[in-house]
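Q: Convert this sequence to structure tokens.
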Amino acid sequence: MLSDIAAFTIVLFPPLQWLLDGVTAALLFVVLGFRWSLFAALAVEAVPGLQLFPAWTLVVLALATAEARSASDAIDVVEPAADDETTQ
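A:
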């Protein structure tokens, strides 16, 4: 979110925006690991007209939602253990 907010303040200085996007991408790769969706956000940030779109924030929220969904799906898949023959 900080990167997207800072991008609004330097909208008239494209080299600073590129530097900010590069630093943001590098930090996200370090924190979140290699994700293809981060490349998609970097591509969106590289297009001049789309820079007002908060791509970094939305990609990180999408990744967090996907991680939470996959974690809850993994929990739902776990089935209870079958009864032993001793309880029959």
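Helices lie at 2-9, 14-32, 36-46, 55-77.
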